[in-house]
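Revision sheet: C-alpha cells.
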Amino acid sequence: MMDAVETKRVIKSLEKAPDSKTILELLNNLRDNVKATESFLRETKVGVAVNNFKGHSDPEVKTLVKKIIRQWKEQVSLDKKKRKQQQHGKIHHHNSTNGDSHSHSRNGSTSVASTAPATNSSEISSPTRTTKSASLEGDFIATKTRTPANDGIKISVHDNTTRNGSISGLYTALAIESKLQPPVILNVAKNIEQAAFTLNRESVSDNYRNKMRSLIMNIRNKQNPQLRSKLLNGDIPASKLVNMSNAELAPDKLKEMMATLHQKNLFDAQGAVQKRAVTDRFVCGKCKQREVSYYQMQTRSADEPLTTFCTCEKCGNRWKFC
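Predicted:
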C-alpha cells in the first residue's frame, strides 16, 4: 500500500497527465494501492484530486472515478465502524475498572482518593470529526456568494490575465446554486476555457472574447439551471459546449417559446401568399362563430391530403387540419 509521500507523488503526476491513457493508469494505481481512511484522505487530499476528474470528457475516466470514490467511501465507513467498536471496548473497560475500584473502597480495602475530575465518556477518545465539505462527494456549504475568492480558489492558471479572468467568470457562473466542491467546479471551468482557446487557434482574439462572454452569459442565466447541471455532471463536454449555438444554449422554456413563435411565423408566412376564402362551413372552437377564412397547402407527400389552415375572422383563433 502507498504511504502519504508516494500518494502525493502520484497526485502530481495525475495533475500533469497528458492524455486519458496516462490518467487511467494513474487512477488504477491509486485504486489498487491506497487504503482510504479519514486521516489519510485529509492528509493527502487524494480524494479531491481524483474527484477533479469526475467531469472528464472521456467516459472511461468518469466511470473509473465513480468506482474509486465508491470504493474509498466504503473503506472509510468500515474504518469508522472498526474504530467505533474499539472505542466502545475502551469505555467498557474504563467503566469496569472504575467499578472495581469503588467496590474495593466500599469493602474497606486500601484506596487512593483521586483528585482528578470525572471524565465524560465522550471525551475519552472519539473519532476525528470531519465537516461535510471535507468529504469526497459531500456538499460545499457556502456562507457568501460563490466566487473563486470567496471559495478560497486561486485562478492564476495561465500567464495571460484575460484567460484567467475567463476562468474566474466561468467558475462564478457554474457555482450558482451549486453545492459541489470548489476543485470540481474549477476543473470544469478550466476545461471550458481551454476548449474555447483551442477553438480560436490558441489566440486571445476578439472571437475568443466574444465566445467567452456568450458562454458565461448563458451559463449564469438563472433560468438555465439545466445547462449548469449538465456541464458539472459531464453530460455536455467542453468540446461540445464551445460549438453550440445560442439557440442550443438557451433555457428550455425559451426554446419552447422560440418553437411556438416559429410555428406562428410559418403560419403567417404561408397565409400571406395564399388566396384566402371566407366560409361559414367551419365553426371556430373558441368563439363558436362561423365567419372563418381558410387556405389549403400540400405540406406532406403528394399522395396525402391537403392541409387546411383556418383563421376565425371574429376572434383571430387559428387552427389547421388535414
